[in-house]
Design brief:
The chain is an alpha+beta fold and 204 residues long. It has 5 helices and 9 strands, in the order H-H-H-H-H-E-E-E-E-E-E-E-E-E.
Length: 204
């Protein structure tokens, strides 16, 4: 549920002139923070909705299965993982979005997830340009052969299939128009695994 939507609901249910300052007070954040989230069209989390219910002493959501099947994920709208030649990460601005657990492969509440954009066509048909990628953070854990990863190499961010030999890492594209690349020797120290792609979101 978006902030402007909940504001309208609160006004109708309470008869109070609910505004961003009032919402900021009950959420324990600044008014500017609420204003920024309205501009970014971000949604309130379940925890935030519970705070609003408690603050205004009303019920605005039901504890239903649909809610418990939703996951809060940090979405970085200005971070791109390149399905091609590499993209530099130029912003860490993020929004919190809710996604159904069904979009995740092997979801676990103990794992950290985020979502970023894909850019380029080297991973088609598996990943299309402008797809949103759900990333399970791995922090340089062991590579599982032929899984798709987001990784940083020489200050650029890529999304590719990876495989590991004894003394090299193989970078693969699903699009046959792109050739395989290899990272060997000391260059392997420049590779940082950010996470594995565990879900793809299109047209939301």
């Amino acid at each position: 549920m978006k902030i402007d939507e909940i504001t309208e609901i609160l006004r109708k249910k309470t008869g109070l002139p609910v505004n961003q300052s009032m919402l900021a007070k009950c959420l324990g954040v600044t008014r500017q923070s609420v204003s920024n989230r309205v501009k970014n069209n971000s949604r309130l989390t379940i925890i935030e909705l519970e705070k609003i219910e408690k603050f205004f002493n009303i019920k605005i959501m039901q504890k239903c299965e649909n809610l418990t099947n939703m996951v809060n994920v940090d979405f970085y709208p200005e971070v791109f993982a390149s399905c091609g030649g590499g993209t530099v990460m130029f912003s860490d601005e993020k929004n919190v979005v809710e996604l159904p657990k069904t979009l995740f492969s092997d979801y676990s509440p103990s794992k950290k997830y985020s979502m970023i954009y894909a850019q380029g066509d080297s991973m088609t048909p598996f990943i299309d340009n402008s797809d949103k990628l759900i990333v399970e953070h791995r922090n340089n854990e062991q590579i599982i052969d032929n899984k798709v990863y987001v990784f940083c190499y020489k200050s650029e961010i890529f999304v590719k299939r990876l495989a590991k030999n004894v003394d090299e890492i193989i970078i693969k594209s699903d699009n046959p128009n792109y050739s395989m690349r290899y990272i060997k020797g000391e260059d392997m120290n420049d590779l940082q695994i950010i996470g594995q792609i565990v879900g793809i979101v299109r047209n939301i």
